[in-house]
# Entry
Amino acid sequence: MKIDVKRVAKLANLELDDEELPKFEKQLEEILSYFDKLKEVNIKDVEITSQVTGLENVIREDKAAPSLSQEEALSQTKSQHNGLFKVPGILENE
Amino acid sequence: MNNLNNLTIKQSYEYLNKKKCSSVELTSSCLEQIEKLNPEINAFITVSELALDEARKADELRSNNQELPLLGIPIALKDIYMTKGLRTTAASNVLRDYIPQYDATVVRKLKEAGAVILGKTNLDAWAHGSSGENSDFGPTKNPWDREYYVPGGSSSGSAAAVAANLCAAATGTDAGGSIRLPASFTDTVGLKPTYGLVSRYGIIAMASSLDSIGHFTKTVEDSALFLNITAGNDPFDATTTNKELPDYTKDLHKGIRGLKIGIPKEYLAMGIDKKIKENFDNALRQIEELGAEIIEISLPHTKYAVACYYIIQPSEVSSNLARYDGIRFGNDRSYFGDEAVRRIILGTFTLSAGYYEAYYKKAMQVRTLIKRDFEQVFNPPAGGVDAIIAPVSPTPPWKLGEKLDNPLRMYLSDIFTTTANLAGIPGLSVPSGFINGLPAGFQILGPQFSEKLLFQIGHAFEQTQERKILDI
# Structure
């Protein structure tokens, strides 16, 4: 199985140096070919398991409760403005 | 006694209650051992400056007849547990300066039980790894051979800290073996509880459907005592159980006469080191002598567990690590180390359009088959067994650097441990002696929520062994 590491890295918002690509490509392709093992398993009509202890629809009352203050919430950011998080623009402005 | 730091939780409790020592003396003894050994072992990333203050406070409470199960007992926390006001790094440069605004539920419970927090222990960054070497704060060394050997991972620092008596007990996380493997490499007792028995809230998420919150102790009894404190429903983690929970220390001394213990034939057929096999056979004989019936069982989908696990886990990792963008806290994504990058890319790929069905969905179906294997084996009407025992690692501890350049080989070290996480069942790793001076252990697996039985079996076996205290 081939993997286009550069393209997938972009999807995951990771910037890799070009010289790193061959190393990751080789390691990941080796891992992906190990996954071929699963091809021999018969999974016809088998349900998926995503919640392993069988819990379903865990709900609670929608009630307000104390949470972090604005000051606490901002205490770990390096990027703030007027008591708000400052984020990079997502729309291009030509 | 000079070496108060060698005490178990139970012994510490007795010493404190009979006024044979104070919590300040006990805590100082651990801090001195940390100062002496940490430069070499690298078990701690951060040592708390508040530990002695907490010990003083505990002594005061005790003199006012306050009774709490861990009052004044010094413990360590894997540095993936959020601690309010105390740096939490996940051993990654992304969180090198991160100071949490709140405590994980388990941390809150331990503090309420009176524990003294000594500090935060090293790990494979984000809990990705089986050796402890993937840490951005340097590898942890195995206290039993500090020059050459890995302590196992990902909860490397917690295992090493308990083994080297830097603390009475330490917390860990186990998504695919990250508690059981290092426990077996360091002669400590490691518990991976049933999925959802202990809250994940405030513990930096790795793979949310697999993460189990457990701990390392010096004895099985301590492990049960610790679980009494950490287990239980948490409104902040919707996957925690609503079941009424037992006192886990209750049937410890009941013995194992008449229990049916299964040995999975697939595990022993899968290329296992000769010395490990020998060690395991010795343990088996002891268990038989204690009166249990040993029965060969079959878990036919075991050979697919590692492939299944290393699809599901990186998929969930890629999603959980998507939040680290360096805006609200921490550094940006260029600070991720190689292993995190590998898993994010692998997971993004297996979840991406066109590959989801072939990889992720298929792995989640195979997971069902692995879970069914266990359900059948544990099914009482069908003559099922009470518990299973198996080796933890197919090999003894390996050398530092040995598997670092070959991620697939590293992943294959988890061959006997990932099945429990996929099936959501508990596993207790118990020491079973030494091979060429390095520790070995085996794991006891049981049906979901059978921790009490695992402690009963583990404790019975432990009584046949002598606790070896690492004297360094």
